[in-house]
Amino acid sequence: MKMPMLSSEALSSKSKEELIDTIRTLQDRVHVFVSVGTSLSTEKDQDILLENIVTYAKKITGADAATLYMMSEDEKKLHFSIVHTDSMKIRMGGTSGKPIDWYPVKLYNEDGSPYLEMVAAYVALKKKTLNFKDVYDVKDFNFTGTRQFDQKTGYRTQSMLALPMLNHVNEVIGVLQLINAKDESGNTIAFSPESQALTEALASQAAVAITENRLIRGLEELLNSIIRVIASAIDEKSKYTSGHIERVAELAVYLAQQVSESPNGVFKDVHYSDDKIEEIRFAGLLHDIGKITTPEYVVDKATKLETIYDRIHTVFLRFELLKKDREIEMWKALAGSPEEPNAKAERDNLMKRLEEEIRKISEDYTFIQRMNTGGEFLKPEYKDRICEIAQTRVLIDGENTPVLTEDEILNLHISRGTLTEAERQIINNHAVVTDKMLSQLPFPKKLKNVPSYAANHHERMDGSGYPKGLKAEDLELPARIMAMADIFEALTAPDRPYKKGKTLSEAMKIMEFMVKDYHIDPDLFAFFKEAKVYRWYAEKFMNPEQIDMD
């Protein structure tokens, strides 16, 4: 930008006081311009950014009114973004809260030719600045709307400066239009060449700032969308855990917000910024990303014998074959028995034995079927009976085959739930994969903790968690929040195939035991109860029949 220069003749004709005033004016404008640069480069809020552009433009030029038009996405219209008229106390658009419902300015006619009658349209299409001393003397543009506004309100539009806002690639992103420059006495004057030069520089800098702001917002929206798509894909992988990730993320964010707003108590000094809350939200949405590599039959294992299908059906067929084998043996024995009258008792005994064996086979299968359902604890005597039943053999394809295979016995011996130790390790490995995957992503500085918060949601305060066995001193509060949200959601979820969702009181009781075992943060759980975070979650996500406490 070239600073306005004074000729030698002008210098000689000016008094000392006038020269000092001119220098001061220039200094003030430069100072404002420097402030503008700093403000535009740091402001993140789009509405405030646009408001600042208009405010600074009026201050630099002394304009009474200003209109900021923004280019539409299809680049065929200019939309009114901000309208200010100080003398009439008009504030519309921007941060005013008053929407502008005026029709946008078209840039092209119906036949596709450029529409050059309106000043704003001409400036946008030609990328040229227009500076009028008095618009009423201008014949080349249509000022009908301006004259009608003046007649209706008593305002007098006179001088006008309209300039394009060009970004770093010379694209027009908007038009800034200033009206009625004022001198120190309040008289309307023309916009000076100096004012025009400064405003053009401001418009260029503002356009770059707006473009950068939009780019940053676009990247953030893209990142947010990608993360949500990934979270949705993980949830959709299992029909039983659909919504788990969203619920954990919402609970973690709500708990973090409540902790941050706590005026007293243990967490009175904890204050989370919007960026920190967003970091926790992203960690919640990504905490199970490692399950992308976990086989569905493990994630969805509803019964102990389930793999790709529930093998209880195969076991059922073996027991049915066993029944048929016994029946065949008995009928063969009956066919070979004598027809003498005293042989009737023997045949009756054979039939009774058959019925007894069929009944026992049915009872054994019913027992195995019951053991196939994961429970809280498997008694030792039940394990012994499973082994006893497994010794029974059935004829299949000419071979005597055990009615239960070794792998089926192993699965039926699972003490709690439906997973074997090997399958549990596969499940647990998702935390390792989560850490590995997220650690490779170049998160921005404000989201740098997403990988650790997400990957540490199965760690415990006493160091007995996984995958790293971290202890309390190694776990930041957001990671503890994530762990508590994941546990509470898992306890109360009504859609798990291997267990019934706990009631509110049952879930809280279990978590109290976890506090005693130092698996979860005692202070955080106390706050969880005191702030009734559990109640908020219950009313939003739990079934009414599960809510059995205030």
Report on the architecture of this protein.
This protein is of the alpha+beta class. It folds into 3 domains: 209 residues, GAF domain (Beta-Lactamase, 2-Layer Sandwich); 188 residues, Hypothetical protein af1432 (Orthogonal Bundle); 87 residues. Helix content is 53%, strand content 10%. It contains 19 helices and 10 strands. Strands 1, 2, 3, 4, 5, 6, 7 and 8 form an 8-stranded antiparallel β-sheet that branches. Helix 7 runs antiparallel to helix 8.
| Mean pLDDT level | 87
Write down the Rg. 39 Å
The tally of domains stands at 3
**Helical amount:** 40-55%
CATH class of the largest domain: Alpha Beta
Largest sheet: 8 strands, antiparallel
CATH evolutionary superfamily of the largest domain: GAF domain
What is the CATH T-level topology of the largest domain?
Beta-Lactamase
Which regions have little confidence, pLDDT < 50, spanning 5+ residues?
Answer: none
Instruction: Tell me the series of helices and strands, N- to C-terminal.
Output: HHHEEEEHEHEEEHHHHHHHEEHHHHHHH
What structural class do the secondary elements suggest?
alpha+beta
Number of helices: 19
Strand content: 5-15%
What overall geometry do the principal axes of the alpha carbons give? elongated
Ends distance: 67 Å
What is the correct CATH architecture of the largest domain? 2-Layer Sandwich
Total strands:
10
Oligomeric nature of the chains:
single chain
